[in-house]
């Protein structure tokens, strides 16, 4: 899911990255929408949807070839003024390919060129043509007792500003991960994963070649695991994942001056349980979610060579911690063969604790909430419309409303957060503990979508539209739209 914030991608990587990795295999169009269920929808007990492990495809997919093309656009402007474009994100999948043998092995390739741009008054008009690419591999022994997977997602681009030649070169790995798993029982699957994330951002300041501004941020190493209990047709499923990481920030600026590195540890876990029972032809899926993450940060003196990942002595008292605990309840319902409906509510408690250097400042604590609900109707199931049996058509409506911290774990931040000021000292704010603690904001919206498959699910097309609003000190309006075409060979 995309998120909205002008804070750097580091926030997304350090706070939510250790809970879920971004799979190279994108989910279907409608599951990207903000009103989609996060933990109560059908199939969400699969490890692919629960913790985005490609090993879940060995149990989820039944196709030999899937070829998908899509286009997505998101934009924000001042409320009531459609001509005041502030931020825009456009991306294509050209293409997203999945090839393999069901329950044996899969190979996925993903290439997505796109453009991120903004016209915020504080920075001027900036644009970032970004190339995203990915590879995922999953395979298992016939019994499922041994499974192995690999995940690699990267990006490359050059950010430019309209008022000059200076630019920023960015590149990185959103995921580099090896996974080992096992279906140890028909009701139990487990997995172990280890890897890293990395981002390098370098300012090329042609106005003065002696000026530098480059930084590295990432998680090295990142390890974790998960356990999945349940199977199709079983009345209860329960999933748990745990991940720990060491995150690092290394910074060199101005006339090649080494700045303090920041290093810390992260831990996060997530647990969800879903029931399933039928009554009078209806299927009900109540669900519960609990999750927690904590990031500890410590400021260190730089080493003689600040271009590596080593650190000097810790700066006394210059440490801080951020944490979040989340609780959610929800349910989805299958309305016989006519469609489905869902509702979810989550509440999170977020905290920032200061080190002794900032002892005069009280710790920050805030609570945030989110609701979403929606319905999807199977139009082809209406007898009077007389659809051919080879065609299926679904119409969807949804709504979400959430109060959030605009800098911590906010929706729609991973794309626009890639942009940085075209100046040296662009990252000095990171040395303040509350650099990621933004003002509260409320974001909400409606969405609608239409999906159809033809020739007995050989060809699929889909489209969606989201109408969004965001309010804090200033109100903004937004929209998101996408179209998708898919070919399946079973």
Structural overview:
By secondary structure, the protein is mainly beta. The chain has a single domain, classed as Maltoporin, Chain A (Beta Barrel), CATH 2.40.170. It is 3% helix and 60% strand. It contains 3 helices and 20 strands. The chain has an 18-stranded antiparallel barrel. The longest helix is centred in the first third of the chain and has 7 residues, at 9-15. Residues 1-26 have low confidence and may be disordered.
Number of discrete helical segments:
3
Helix-strand pattern = HHHEEEEEEEEEEEEEEEEEEEE
Range of helix content: under 10%
For the record, the count of structural domains works out to 1
Low-confidence stretches: 1-26
Overall geometry: globular
List the topology elements:
Blueprint: H1 9-15, H2 47-51, H3 57-60, E1 65-78, E2 85-101, E3 105-118, E4 126-140, E5 147-161, E6 167-185, E7 188-204, E8 212-229, E9 236-254, E10 257-258, E11 262-275, E12 277-279, E13 282-300, E14 314-334, E15 339-354, E16 364-378, E17 392-405, E18 440-454, E19 459-471, E20 475-489
Antiparallel strand pairs: 1-2, 1-20, 2-3, 3-4, 4-5, 5-6, 6-7, 7-8, 8-9, 9-10, 9-11, 11-13, 12-13, 13-14, 14-15, 15-16, 16-17, 17-18, 18-19, 19-20
